C-alpha cells in the first residue's frame, strides 16, 4: 500500500485530511512540525507528502527543496493559504509535485494524490531498470553465452586486476564501452573515477582541451582554468573511444602521458602528474593506419599492450533472443506499456538479420517495436520493413541475380508493405490487378 505523510500544525485539518485519504486505501502518517516530519520520513519512507507552508519550526517551501535533495523520488504537494500564489510557484520551482489551497481544494486531494503516486511508481520502476543497466557493466551481467563473447570476457577478467593498458577492437555497437566499464569495475580502481570520451566527437582544438584541460586565457573563450579528463580520471580509468580518429598532432601528447604519467595543459608551462589507467577502443585497423602514416607507430605499441576483440552480433546470433528479451523488459517499463512477449516470427526475423549496427542497432529496433506495439506481444509488423522481408532475402545466394527471384522477392515485399492489400500492391507495382494475380500464381505467392 502507498504511504502518505501529512505535515500540518492545525490538528483538525490534519485529521480531516487523514480520514479522507485513509478511506481511499492509503497508509497515512501525521506530523505537526518539521522535526517530527523528518523522523517520520526516515521511519515510514512515504511515497507522497502533503505539507503546509507555515509550520512552528520552519517553512514548507524551503522544506521541499531540502527533502527533494535527499529523496528525489518522493513527491510533495504543498498546502497553501488562500490566494497565496507566490508560495505555490516557489514550491514548484523547489521540486513540488503541485500545490493545493487549504480548505477549498479538498475534492482535488485524492485525484492529485493518485497522479503523484503514479509518478512515484514510474520513478521507482525506472530506478530499478537503471540499476539493472548499471549492473551490465559487471562481467557477470553482460548478456550472452556465445563462445566468441565468453572468450572476450575471459580475457577481460584476466587483465582487469592489473594496470595494463587495454585496446578494445570491434565494430561500432559491439559494446566496447560496456567492456571498458566492466574492466574498470573489476579492477583495484573500482570506486574511483571512470571517464569516457569519444575522440571523433570534437575538433582538434576542443579535443585537446577536453583531454588535457586548459588555463584561463589559453584561447578565446577560455575564461577560467579547466581540468581535462586525464586529470578528472586521476586514480581511476580514462576510456578513449574511437582512438583511431585522434588527430595525429595530439597523439604525441597522449604518448607522453602513457610514458611519463605527465602532461601539460593547453596554455600552461608546468607539467601535471597523474595516475591513470588507459583503455582505448577503435573500429579501425590501426596497423593499416600505421602503415599509411595516419597513426603513430610508437603510440600504437603503447596502446596495444593487451588487445581484446569483441565479436559482432552476427557472429553470436544465439544471444539475440536473450538480448531482445532484455531490451523488451527495459523499454516496456520505460514506456509504461504491457508488452511482455515476442512472436516466433518476430524472433525469426531478428535472428536472420545481419545486424551491421550490432547491439546498438538491436536496441534501437526493440525500442521502436515496443513503441509501435498495440498489444502484449511484439509481432513482425512492429519491425521496420527491411527486417520484415529478411526471410525473403535469405534465399540461396546462387539465385539472387535471377530476374524471377528478384521479381518474386519484390512482389512479396510490396504485399507485406500493403498488409496483403492486392489492389494497393498492384498500384504501387504499377501493374494491373490481373497481372499481379497471375504473377502470384506463377511464383506460388500465397499472401
Instruction: Point out poorly predicted stretches.
Output: 395-400
Strand content: 5-15%
Name given to the CATH architecture of the largest domain: 3-Layer(aba) Sandwich
Distance between the termini: 51 Å
Question: What is the level 1 CATH name of the largest domain?
Answer: Alpha Beta
Q: Pairing-aware structural class of the strands and helices?
A: alpha/beta
Overall morphology? flat
Short key terms for the protein model shown above:
447 residues; alpha/beta; Rossmann fold; Helicase, Ruva Protein, domain 3; five-stranded parallel β-sheet; 15% strand; flat
Topology:
Blueprint: E1 3-7, H1 11-22, E2 27-31, H2 34-44, E3 48-52, E4 54-55, E5 58-59, H3 60-70, E6 75-80, H4 85-93, E7 98-101, H5 106-135, H6 147-159, E8 166-169, H7 176-185, E9 194-198, H8 204-212, E10 213-214, E11 226-227, H9 229-232, E12 237-241, H10 248-260, E13 262-264, E14 271-273, E15 277-282, H11 286-291, H12 297-303, E16 306-309, H13 320-334, E17 341-342, H14 344-352, H15 358-372, E18 377-378, H16 385-388, H17 390-393, H18 403-417, H19 422-429, H20 433-442
Parallel strand pairs: 1-2, 1-3, 3-6, 6-7, 8-15, 8-16, 9-12, 12-15, 17-18
Antiparallel strand pairs: 4-5, 10-11, 13-14
Amino acid at each position: 500500500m502507498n504511504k502518505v505523510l501529512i505535515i500540518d500544525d492545525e490538528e483538525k485539518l490534519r485529521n480531516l485530511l487523514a480520514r479522507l485519504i485513509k478511506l481511499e486505501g492509503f497508509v497515512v502518517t501525521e506530523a505537526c512540525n518539521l522535526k517530527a516530519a523528518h523522523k517520520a520520513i526516515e521511519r515510514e519512507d512515504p511515497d507522497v507528502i502533503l505539507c503546509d507552508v507555515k509550520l512552528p519550526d520552519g517553512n514548507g517551501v524551503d522544506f521541499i527543496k531540502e527533502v527533494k535533495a535527499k529523496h528525489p523520488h518522493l513527491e510533495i504537494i504543498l498546502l497553501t493559504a488562500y490566494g497565496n500564489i507566490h508560495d505555490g510557484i516557489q514550491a514548484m520551482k523547489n521540486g513540488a509535485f503541485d500545490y493545493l489551497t487549504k480548505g477549498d481544494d479538498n475534492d482535488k486531494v485524492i485525484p492529485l494524490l493518485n497522479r503523484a503516486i503514479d509518478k512515484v511508481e514510474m520513478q521507482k520502476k525506472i530506478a530499478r531498470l537503471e540499476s539493472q543497466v548499471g549492473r551490465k557493466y559487471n562481467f557477470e551481467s553482460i548478456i550472452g553465452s556465445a563462445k566468441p563473447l565468453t572468450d572476450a570476457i575471459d580475457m577481460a577478467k584476466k587483465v582487469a586486476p592489473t594496470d595494463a593498458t587495454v585496446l578494445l577492437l570491434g565494430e561500432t555497437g559491439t559494446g566496447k564501452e560496456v567492456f571498458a566499464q566492466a574492466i574498470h569495475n573489476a579492477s583495484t580502481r573500482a570506486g574511483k573515477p571512470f571517464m569516457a570520451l569519444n575522440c571523433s566527437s570534437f575538433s582538434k582544438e576542443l579535443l585537446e582541451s577536453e583531454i588535457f584541460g586548459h588555463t584561463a586565457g589559453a584561447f578565446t573563450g577560455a575564461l577560467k582554468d579547466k581540468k581535462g579528463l586525464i586529470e578528472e580520471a586521476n586514480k581511476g580509468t580514462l576510456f578513449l573511444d574511437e582512438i583511431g580518429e585522434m588527430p595525429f598532432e595530439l597523439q604525441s601528447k597522449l604518448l607522453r602521458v602513457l610514458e611519463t604519467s605527465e602532461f601539460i595543459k593547453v596554455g600552461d608551462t608546468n607539467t601535471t602528474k597523474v595516475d591513470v589507467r588507459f583503455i582505448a577502443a577503435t573500429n579501425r585497423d590501426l596497423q593499416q593506419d600505421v602503415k599509411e602514416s595516419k597513426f603513430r607507430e610508437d603510440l600504437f605499441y603503447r596502446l596495444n599492450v593487451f588487445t581484446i576483440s569483441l565479436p559482432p552480433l552476427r557472429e553470436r546470433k544465439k544471444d539475440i533472443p536473450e538480448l531482445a528479451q532484455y531490451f523488451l523488459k527495459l523499454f516496456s517499463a520505460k514506456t509504461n506499456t504491457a508488452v511482455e512477449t515476442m512472436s516466433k516470427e518476430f524472433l525469426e526475423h531478428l535472428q536472420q538479420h545481419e545486424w551491421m549496427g550490432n547491439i546498438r542497432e538491436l536496441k534501437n529496433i526493440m525500442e521502436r517495436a515496443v513503441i509501435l506495439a498495440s498489444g502484449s506481444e511484439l509481432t513482425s509488423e512492429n519491425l521496420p520493413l527491411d527486417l520484415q522481408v529478411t526471410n525473403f532475402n535469405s534465399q540461396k545466394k546462387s539465385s539472387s541475380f535471377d530476374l524471377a527471384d528478384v521479381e518474386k522477392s519484390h512482389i512479396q515485399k510490396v504485399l507485406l508493405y500493403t498488409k496483403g492489400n492486392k489492389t494497393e500492391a498492384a498500384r504501387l507495382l504499377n501493374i494491373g490487378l490481373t497481372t499481379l494475380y497471375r504473377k502470384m500464381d506463377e511464383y506460388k505467392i500465397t499472401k
